[in-house]
Design a protein that fits this description.
Number of strands: 10
Oligomer: single chain
Structural class: mainly beta
Order of helices and strands: EEEEEEEEEE
Strand content: 35-45%
Number of helices: 0
Largest sheet: 6 strands, mixed
């Protein structure tokens, strides 16, 4: 089973930035569309951003122009650059492939507060 390891979360002020990283321990990483998800207590985990094997990106409307996803196939990593953070971005962030076939990792907590 493949279990990604997320890192880079923390406390940020509104308008601030964070860069999340995800290490994915599989040699097949480059064949997957990878995605970032987030979840707040009592809600369903939601998809936030994805990057496919051709490096095409998609985002949910609420993060367009603020979040940027990227990937490093050689090092089997996915990244989420988060700019102009808002309190509503507060959540635990996870990465997975878009089919959600990897195990869910522990995630990384992002808190946005003044």
């Amino acid at each position: 089973q493949v279990r990604p390891v997320e890192s880079g979360g923390g406390l940020a002020q509104p308008g601030g930035s964070l860069r999340l990283s995800c290490a994915v321990p599989t040699d097949s990483f480059r064949f997957y569309t990878t995605a970032w998800y987030r979840q707040t207590p009592g809600t369903e985990r939601e998809w936030v951003a994805l990057v496919d094997i051709a490096n095409s990106e998609k985002y949910i409307d609420s993060v367009k122009g603020r979040f940027f996803i990227s990937r490093d196939n050689a090092n089997r990593m996915s990244f989420l650059q988060m700019n102009d953070l808002k309190p509503e971005d507060t959540a635990v962030y996870y990465c997975n492939n878009f089919a959600e076939s990897w195990e869910w990792g522990q995630g990384t907590q992002v808190a946005v507060s003044a």
